[in-house]
Amino acid sequence: MDTRAFDFELPRERIAQAPVEPRDRARLLVRPTGGGEARDSLVRDLPDWLRPGDLLVLNDTRVLPARVQGRRETGGQVELLFLEPVLPGTLLTPESTEVAPGADVWRAMVKPARKIKAGECVACSGGVVARFLEREAESGYWLARLEPGQGGHVGTTTEELMAIAGAMPLPPYIERPATEADTERYQTVYARKPGAVAAPTAGLHLTEDLLQRLDAMGVRQATVTLHVGAGTFLPVTADRIEDHRMHSERFELGEEAAAEVRACRERGGRVVPVGTTSARVLESCALRDPDFERDIVEARAGSTDIFLHPGSGPRVCDGLFTNFHLPKSTLLMLVASFIGVEEMRELYRTAIEREYRFYSYGDASLLWRRPT
To answer: What is the CATH number assigned to the segment(s) 3-63+181-368?
Structure first.
C-alpha cells in the first residue's frame, strides 16, 4: 500500500503545546460501532461510551527524564536522549573507565553526534558526567553512560543520575523546553515501571476519579507494560508501508492481564486498549483459542516490532482509545488497521474541521474495530 495514503495537511495551530487541565476535560471524538458520523464528547464522559463487562488495558510504563544537556571541554553544547539500557546492572564509580560485562551502558541519540569522540566526557548539570564509549555503525547511536562527577555519590546508576541531570523528553513538535509541570503531567496517573522515553499519550487523559467511575460501573482494567521508544514518532519513509522496518520496544504482559482478557471474552465484553502501545502489546501476544470465536492472549515478555496496518490488523482488540497522530506514522497506520484507510482519513478530516487538538498533549478518539 502506498505510504502517501496516510499523509495529510495539519494546520500548525492544531498541534497542542500544552495539556488541557484537568486531564479528563480533553475532547473525545467517538466513531460509533459500525461506522457513521463521528460524535463529539469529552474524555470525562468515557463511561457513556463503554458498557459493563468491557476491559480497558493500560500501559503502566513510566517516562524517564532521559533528555540530558552537556557541555564539552571546548564549550560546545551536546544533547543526549537515553533510549534503552544495553548492558544494565552494574553500579559505576567515578574511577571506572572500561566497559565491564553487565556495565550500566545505554544506547543514546546524540546531537551533534559526529563531533563526539569515543572516551570523551561532557559535564552535565548536578555534577553529573556523560561518558561516550562507542558509536554504533548501523544506527548512528552512541553507547554511553552517566557517572557521578568529582565528589559525586559512588555507585549511582545511569537511570538514577537521569533524575539529577535529565529533563522530560517532550517530542520535537512541542516547541518549548520541558518545565517542572511536565515532570508530572507527561506521566499517566498509573505510571509504575520506569523505562520509556515517550509517554503512552492516550493514558495522559485518564484520572483516578475517571478510572474509579469506570470500575464502579463494571468496566474492568488490566495493565501491561511497553517502554515507548523514540522510534514511535518516526515517519514511514518507504514508498510502500510493507517495506517499512519497524522499531522494536520492550514489553511485558503478565498472567493476570492474560486472565482478564480471557474473562472478558467469556462474559462477552470488549477489549479496549488505552493507546497504541497497549494495542501493540496485546496483538504481540495474540493466541488462537478454540474455545473462543476471537483470539485471546498469552503471558509474554520480550521485545516486539509488530506493525499493525491495513491488511495486518488487530486480532485481540475490539476498540481503541487513542490520540490523533502524525502523518505517515506507524501509529496512524495502526488506526487504519482498526477502521480502514478511508474511514481514518474521514475521521482526521472531521477532527481538523472541528478544531480538535493533535498529538501528545492533544485530544483523544474512541474507535471500534470494523467488522471483518
So the answer is: 3.40.1780.10
